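Q: What structure does this chain adopt?
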Amino acid sequence: MKKIGITALIATFIMNANLYSFDIIEDTFEFIFDDLAKIVGIVVIIGVAFFLLKKNSKKDSNDRE
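A:
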């Protein structure tokens, strides 16, 4: 009886550890695809804004000459 109880306890611990690891994997993919995508989007928008400002400033400097 004691052996069955210990086996059940170990099996429950292993199942909980597996479920927890799946939760960690899910959270990691959620971070990568949601939060990281937002960060990359913001960086791209800022880069485009700098590119357009630089392009317009070159046009203005050429027009003055």
